[in-house]
Amino acid sequence: MNPTLETKRESVRTKLDPDLLEQFAGKVMGDMGAAVSGALVILGDRLGIYQALVKCGPANSATLAKSTGLDERYLREWLSAQAASGYVECDPDSGDFWMNPEQAAVFAEPDHPAAMTGGFFSISSVYHDEPLVEDAFKSGRGIPWGDHHNCLFCGTERFFRAAYAAYLTSSWIPALDGVEAKLQAGALVADVGCGHGASTLLMAKAFPNSRFIGFDLHDGSVEAARHHALEQGVTNAEFQVATAKNFPGRDYDLVTIFDALHDMGDPVGAAVHIRQALGPDGTWMIVEPMAGDTLAENLTPLGRIYYSFSTMICTPASKSQEVGLALGAQAGEKRIRAVVEEGGFTRFRRATETPVNLVFEARP
């Protein structure tokens, strides 16, 4: 037997410690409260309760009922649960509730960089889709992106849109060598894995002299992106159904992939195609979840979120496609670099980062 393994087995504690059990049970109870509160966040968002509370608070449930037209008794229970979660403030004696500026930024202001409500919609989708993932664990098969519950698509767009709006044109693009000037003058851009088109449309509005084409393998997302473009009056962006390995066009000045490379079955094949599609002086911008290169580095609250979504969504998506490399949402810079260089790129660097994202620049 491996002596190292034997030593590890001997060091594993087997006797239950009542104090540690109490601590651990308390932690899990907190997690259960967070899990069930997610449904209340979605309710509050769909019914406009957060925005109403910001507008009329401090307010009791009766006042809020008059403002929203919703049932007072349901509102009273919802408000109490939100206060217990720390998601709203309250005065227990008067029964008044209100939101502080930080709570409002997260739950009541959809365009704020800290907005997180969309994440709860994505979380709801993984509960809907748990039976699919259970079957995938047994069979080893993947789950195509389009087979997930609809809440995943709108939730993903909402969750990422806030960060893209805050950083994409003000920080990420300026961090790339010479790209901002090209976009201002007029460039051709492919946004691969564009989803509902949030990133594509943000760039198109910021750089009206450039032409943007969003590609995604999911028909429903492409239709949604087209609708958003029409709704926002954006005329220099279009959307097509295509994969990262077969999207059409040549001599792109910029190709972007936002939080999607790790979902692809054959990211190396995607890199090869992108290398061929770029012009001689083109740039590939890759945005990926913040991650270290080792498991130990990723055992954090953020890593917990990303590993969980990766188990339920990202890894099954990759395994449903050709090759099924399954990088996972915590791939880290070292693995992303290896994919990019194997795809034929000779220059790769971390251009910038945020607390939740890594932004890479690859050049031929």
Descriptive notes:
The termini are far apart. This protein is globular. α13 packs across α15 (332-342). The chain is of the alpha/beta class and 364 residues long. The mean pLDDT is 95. The chain folds into two domains: 18-107, Orthogonal Bundle (Arc Repressor Mutant, subunit A), CATH 1.10.10.10; 117-363, Vaccinia Virus protein VP39 (Rossmann fold), CATH 3.40.50. Helix content is 52%, strand content 15%.
CATH fold field value of the largest domain = Rossmann fold
Mean pLDDT: 95
State the CATH class of the largest domain.
Alpha Beta
Molecular shape: globular
Order of helices and strands: HHHHHEEHHHHHEHEHEEHEHHEE
Helix content: 40-55%
Please name the fourth-level CATH homologous superfamily of the largest domain. Answer: Vaccinia Virus protein VP39
- Main sheet: strand order: 5-4-3-6-7-9-8
- Based on the coordinates given, report the CATH architecture of the largest domain: 3-Layer(aba) Sandwich
Give the number of DSSP strands: 9
- Based on secondary structure, the structural category is alpha/beta
Major sheet attributes: 7 strands, mixed
Kindly give the count of domains: 2
- Estimated radius of gyration: 23 Å
How many helical stretches? Answer: 15
Low-confidence segments: none
As a percent range, the share of strand residues is 15-25%
